[in-house]
Amino acid sequence: MVSKHPLLPDALARIQELIAEETGAPLRGRARGRLARLLGDALGLSTMPVYAEEFTSRDLTILIADLRGFSSISEAYPIEAVLEILKPYFARMTEIIVRNVGAVDKFMGDSVMALFDERHIKNSARHAVTCAVEMQLAMDDLNRNSKQSGLPDLHMGIGINTGRVMAGLVGSGQYSEYVVIGGEVNLASRIEAFSLRGQVLISQSTFECCEDFALTDKPIDVHVKGMVNPVSLREVVAIPSLGWEVPRREIRRSIRVKTEISFLYQMVKDKIVGSEPYQGIILDIGYYGVKAKLGRQVESYSEVRMEIDLSIVGCRATDIYGRILRTQASDGRVLASIEFTSISATSQALIRRFVQLLIQGSEGG
User: Are 287 and 355 spatial neighbours (Cβ–Cβ below 8 Å)?
Assistant: First the structure.
């Protein structure tokens, strides 16, 4: 049963007003939660049932960032090495978020969710986009340090959405948390899932708030679970006024060689791998992706799990996950550009060797 002490909301509101008068803004996020816990202790709420501060409707911008392919790193390295990778990553990302007037809402495994909540919604969107670009630029420094320690590179995808959410404090005298809920939060999560290594993807609502501030590519229409109509997304490529460009990761444009080899693939939806395997033909292959001919229609930005026949090196590369970037019809079949999103170190090494052998063979001919 959810109950609310009659003194708590009024006391919290009065203290927030005093803080805003002195500093220009009330406490938000976790700081607000700490204030509520202190008030709860003072009012003797530590043994009371869970309370919920009245939720309010507000406009803000949600940023969600996630490391790509980190599950394969976690499997290949001991836990000490994984922590050595994550600690500087989270510390640097938190620093950047706070510097751009954002608040870390939560850490979720290898991902982080940040909120940008300001009086003018355009400002919140611009701060979020600036933060995202700075986060991608910071990955170069982090990877440089990782290489010096013999650790693998990290690559991050970021999704941003702007809209109206319900926000409030839930918890008890022992623990409370400021939460935001609603469809716009879910959409931000979906956008992040579509983002590739090194990408910053934004919703149409975020774009409309900062179209004169950020340079973006042409819109991409994607189908999002729970929404009837396609959603328009844009990739941020630069912030001209700051002289910043989102790094175009070499991992997304490696050497490609022509080939004709078969592979099996299964569709992945909501992180669940479909049971039915399909067969396709790879027409060219690189270290980080393929161009393939498929026998069935697929949606752009859908995900697949692949198993590739590498007969030249005498084995198969298995358990490869990829994102379908573009599709086009060709002779009754579908041509698809697929970028690897998660691949084991073993399969990555096999594909590198396979590509290098093909290159040498074509040059020798």
Answer: yes
